[in-house]
Amino acid sequence: MGDFWNDGDPIVDTAAPEGPIETRWERRKFNAKLVNPANRRKLTVIVVGTGLAGGSAAATLAEAGYHVKSYCYQDSPRRAHSIAAQGGINAAKNYRNDGDSIYRLFYDTVKGGDFRARESNVYRLATVSVNIIDQCVAQGVPFAREYGGLLDNRSFGGTQVSRTFYARGQTGQQLLLGAYQAMERQIGLGNIEMNARHEMLELIIVEGKARGIVVRDMVTGEITTEMADAVVLASGGYGNVFFLSTNAKGCNVTASWRAHRKGALFANPCYTQIHPTCIPESGTHQSKLTLMSESLRNDGRVWVPKRAEDCQKPAAEIAEEDRDYYLERIYPSFGNLVPRDIASRAAKNVCDEGRGVGPGGLGVYLDFADAIKRLGQKAVEAKYGNLFEMYQRITGEDPYQVPMRIYPAVHYTMGGLWVDYDLQSTVPGLFVVGEANFSDHGANRLGASALMQGLGDGYFVLPTTLGNYLANGPFEKISEDHASVKEAREQVEGRIKRLLEIDGDRTVDSFHRELGHIMWEYCGMERTEEGLTKAIGLIRSLHEEFWQRVKVPGTGEQLNQNLEKAGRVADFFELAELMCIDALHRRESCGGHFRGESQTPDGEALRHDDEFSYVAAWEYATGESAKPTLHKEQLEFEYVHPSTRSYK
Amino acid sequence: MDIKVRVWRQTDPDTAGKMVTYGVKDISPDASFLEMLDVLNESLILDGDDPIAFDHDCREGICGACSMVIDGVAHGPEKATTTCQLHMRHFKDGDVIDVEPWRAAAFPVIKDLVVDRSAFDDIIAAGGYITAPTGAAPEAHATPVPKVDADLAFEAATCIGCGACVAACPNGSAMLFTAAKVAHLGLMPQGQPERDTRVIDMLQAQDDAGFGGCTNMGECTQVCPKGIPLTLIGRLNADYRQAVRKKF
Ligand SMILES: Cc1cc2nc3c(=O)[nH]c(=O)nc-3n(C[C@H](O)[C@H](O)[C@H](O)COP(=O)(O)OP(=O)(O)OC[C@H]3O[C@@H](n4cnc5c(N)ncnc54)[C@H](O)[C@@H]3O)c2cc1C
Ligand code: SF4
Ligand code: FES
Question: Where do the FAD-dependent oxidoreductase 2 FAD-binding domain residues begin and end (chain A) (predicted)?
C-alpha cells in the first residue's frame, strides 16, 4: 500500500487533561488562561460559517467582547444548512427519570461511534449537553412541550432512554434561528461584522499561525484579504462530494480543504454516514436527495420482490408469498429497526441482486398497508401525516395507496479537520467546530447528536479554549503587503483565472455527477481493496480531464454561480482521492466504513481493534507526485471497553 | 414534456432587464422546478450563453433561499409550497411559464432572479431576539410554558424568511414576516421583558429599510409557504398600540 501514502510520526499530544474523566473539562477550564475584558475589544476573530456551530460561536464570542467577523456563502446567516435538521437534539437531562445520565450519553456515544472517538471529548460533549437546552430555552426556542408546560422528549435512533428534545420536524430550524437571532443582536450592536454572500477561498498563515483568510465577494467578485488574531472554521460537512446527498446544494469542503493544503491535518475522511430512508432518484435531472424521518421504520415494513422479473409489476400485483421482507428475514430480533448502516447496506444488496424497484431499480418498498390495517388510516395519518404529504409532493404517489419507495443516501460526514481537545487544528490559531471537525462521533454518529455537538462547540467549548489561545495576543498587526498575505491572495486569483480560461466543453455539474458516481460505487456503503484502487485511478483521470475540459461561463467580476461551483468541485476531487486512500488503508469495518474483506461469516462488520484503534490524521501531499502522510492518534479506552454489536 | 419559459434576465443591478424565452425539451414531470432550470442552464452553458442565476440551497422547503414569481404568483401555483418543492407534473406539455424575481423596493435585483433580502436581517437585528447571553440561562424547567402558547409560538416561528409575502404585497410590505417573529417571541414568557421595545424597534427598522405599509390586503398569507396567518398582523398591531401607549 506504500503506493498511495507515507507513514508519518504519531500524534502524541491531544491537549486532553489526565485524571478522572468527570472533572477533565472543569480542570481544563480552570487552567485556561483568561483574557482581560479590556483587551478583548482589541482582538479580532474570524468565524467562517453561520450554522449551529459558527452562529453560536460568533454570538458567544461577541457577547464576551471580542471583535468578530463572520462569513457565509448564503444571502443570510439564517440559511446555513443546519436549518434542515429535522429529528432533534440530545441532552442528558434525565427529565423522564428513565436512568439517563451524562455518563450514559457518553457511553452510548462512544459505543455508537464504534470505538473510534476520543473519550475525553465525548465526555465533555455529554456534560455540556444539559447547558445547551437551558441556553436554547432562554432564547425562546419553541421546543415541543407537554400539557404541564414542561419540555417533551422522545427516544431517537434506537436509544433506550428518551433524551431527544425536538420542535416538530424542524428542530434544526428552530435552534438555528435561536443562534441567528443572538448573532443579529450582536450585529445590531456592532460587535459582529457580518459578511453574507462571501466565500472563503484561502487561509492565510503568517509565521506558523493562522492569521486571516482570503474571501471573494460573491456579488461583485472582489477578492479581499481579511486579517484576525485567530480563525475559526465552522463550514460544515463534505457529503456533497457524492454529488447526490441530503445536504444543501452549496455544502462544500473548500474552507476545510484550503486549510488542509496549508498544513491542517484531515482526520478519518472515509467515515461517512448513509441514511437508509431517503426518497430515491427519479431520473437524470436529480439534483439532491430528501431525507424521510427514520421513525417511519417503526411502522413500515421493508420489502422487495423475491424474483427480479416481478420488479416491473405494480406492488399490488405481487402476492404476499412473492415478497421478501428481507430485514425481518435476516435480522429476526430487530427486523425493520436495525441500525442505519445495516439497513442501508441490506437495501443496496437486494438492489445489486436486481431486485430493486422504481426508476433504475434503485429503491425498496416501505409498506404501511399492515400498519393501516392494524391501526387504521387515521392513526397512521396522525403519526406520519406530514411525512406522507412530503413524500407525495415529491413523488406524486400516495403512500396510503401504494407503498413508499426508499433508498439510502449520503447524509453526514464524521471525518473532518483534526482537532485537539481545545478544538484547535494542527495550525496554531486555527480552530474548527461543528461538522467540519472530526471530533466526537468516531466512525458513526448517533441520531440527534450533530446538533448537540455543533452547539456544544460553539456556545460552550470554543469560547473557553479560544480565550486560552488569545490570552497570548493581541498578535503583531499584519499588513496586506506581507509576503504570506500577498501569496495567498495570488493563489486565489490565479485559480479563478485558470478556471475561467479553460473554456472547455463540459459543464461543472457533469464532472461533479461523474465524480459522485465513482464515490458512491466504490467508496459508498461497501468498500473493497479492488474497488478503491480502481476508484483512485478513475478519480485521478477525471480530475485531470476537469482541468482541461471544464467550461466555466462568465467572468470573475460578477455574480457567477458556476465559478463558485467549479472551485468547490476542484477541491472535492482532491478530497475524494484522500477519502479512497483512507478507506483503502483501514482494512477493517467500523461504523460507517464497511470493508468487504472484513466481515463475519454471516456478513456483519468486523472491527480490528488491535490494528486500527486510532484516528487516521492525514497530512497534505505536497509536490506533484507526492503522497499524503499518515499520522496516527492512538485511542485509549479507559472507561468504555470495546465490544462487538449484534442485531441478529 | 416540452415547455417554454420566459425568464427575467438582468445582468446587474444597474442594467435594465427583460424577459427572454427559452425552450426546454423532454423534461420529466418528476423533475422539480429548479431541476428544470438546472437542465436549461446546462444547455445554455454549452451553447455559450449566460446561465440563469437564482438563489437556492436546501431544496427541501426550509432554508428560504429559493424565490421566484412563477406565472405571476410568488413560489408558483401550488399552495403552501416553496419554489424548490414545486414539481413539473403541475404543468402541461406546451405550457409557457413566466419566471420573475421578487419585486419590491426593499429587495433590489442583483442578477436575473437573485435579489438582495438583507433588509430582513436588519429587521431582526433591530429587535427580533430575546436577550440571553450564553452562560446566563436558568435551568430549562424553571419556567414552564403552557403547551398552547408553545404550539402557537412554534407555528409563528416556522417562517422561513423567504420574502414571498413582500413580493406578493401590492405595497411591498414586510408586515407578515415581522408579525410572525413578534408573535413567536411575544407568546413565550422569556419574551415578555422586551416585548414593547421589540415591536417598536422592528417596525421602525421595517420602515427604514423601505418596506411599504400594510393595508390588510391579505395577499401575503396566500403565497406564504408556511401558512403564516393574517391574524398575526392583528396581534402585532395590538402589541404596537399597547407599547406606544406605555411609552408616551
Ligand atoms: C436533512 C438533514 C437532517 C438532519 N437532521 C439532524 C437531526 O435531526 N439531528 C442532528 O443532530 N443532526 C441532524 N443532521 C446533521 C446536522 O444538521 C449537521 O451536522 C449540522 O447542522 C452541521 O452544522 P454546522 O454548523 O457544522 O454546519 P452548517 O450548518 O452546514 O453550516 C456551514 C456554514 O458554513 C458556511 N460555509 C461553508 N463553506 C464556506 C466557505 N467556503 N466560505 C464561507 N462560508 C462557508 C455556510 O454558509 C454555512 O453558514 C441532519 C442533516 C441533514 C442533511
Ligand atoms: S411570512 Fe411566509 S412568505 Fe413571509 S417570509 Fe415568512 S415564510 Fe416567507
Ligand atoms: S431552496 Fe431552501 S427553501 Fe427552497
Answer: 45-451
- Per the structure, the count of domains in chain B is 2
A91 CB near ligand 1 (under 6 Å): no
Give this complex's ipTM.
0.98
* Residues B107 and B121 both lie in one domain: no
Q: Which of B169, B175, B224 to mutate to test the pocket of ligand 2 (most atoms within 8 A of CB)?
A: B224
Whether the per-residue pLDDT at B80 is higher than 60: the answer is: yes
Would the pLDDT of A1 be above 60?
Answer: no
Place of cell 425562546: A140
A174 C-alpha to ligand 1 centroid (Å): 14
Q: Tell the CATH topology of A276-409.
A: Flavocytochrome C3; Chain A, domain 1 (3.90.700)
What is the fold, at CATH topology level, of the domain defined by A23-274+412-470?
A: FAD/NAD(P)-binding domain (3.50.50)
Of the candidates B77, B111, B145, which is a domain's last residue? B111
> Which sequence spans correspond to the domains of chain A?
23-274+412-470, 276-409, 483-605
Fold of A483-605: Methane Monooxygenase Hydroxylase; Chain G, domain 1 (1.20.58)
pTM for the structure as a whole: 0.97
Q: Report yes or no: B1 at the A interface, CB cutoff 8 Å.
A: no
| pLDDT(A473) > 90 | no
Same domain? B11 vs B53: yes
CA of A361 to the centre of ligand 1 (A): 31
DSSP state of B115: E
- Kindly report the length of chain A: 648
pLDDT level of residue A233 (50, 70, 90 thresholds): very high
Q: Is the CB of B63 under 6 A from ligand 3?
A: yes
Answer for the pair B85, B60: CB distance below 8 angstroms, yes or no. Answer: yes
The number of the ligand nearest the C-alpha atom of A57 reads 1
Asked if B190 and B167 sit in the same domain, the reply is yes
Q: Which residues of B touch A133 (CB under 8 A)?
A: 140
Cell numbers linked to A141 = 426556542
* Residue whose CB lies within 8 A of the most ligand 1 atoms, among A156, A170, A435, A459, for a mutation test: A435
Report pLDDT for A368. Answer: 96
Window B:193-232, CB contacts with A under 8 Å:
none
CATH number of the domain encompassing residue B159 = 1.10.1060.10
> What's the mean per-residue pLDDT of chain A?
95
Tell me, yes or no, if A489 is annotated catalytic: no
Answer whether B4 contacts ligand 3 (Cβ < 6 A). Answer: no
CA A451/CA A446 separation, integer angstroms: 11
Q: At what angle do helices B175-186 and B118-125 cross, to 10 degrees?
A: 30
- A474 confidence band (pLDDT: 50, 70, 90): confident
Distance CA A201, CA A256 (A): 10
| Pick among B11, B46, B57 to test the A interface (most A CBs inside 10 A) | B57
Cα dist. B88→A34, B84, B102, B112, B144 in Å?
58, 11, 21, 21, 46
- For residue B145, the enclosing domain spans 117-247
Task: Compute the C-alpha angle A584/A586/A591, nearest 5°.
Answer: 115
CATH number at residue B59: 3.10.20.30
Ligand 2 contacts CB of residue B163 (under 6 A): yes
How large a percentage of chain A has pLDDT more than 70?
A: 98
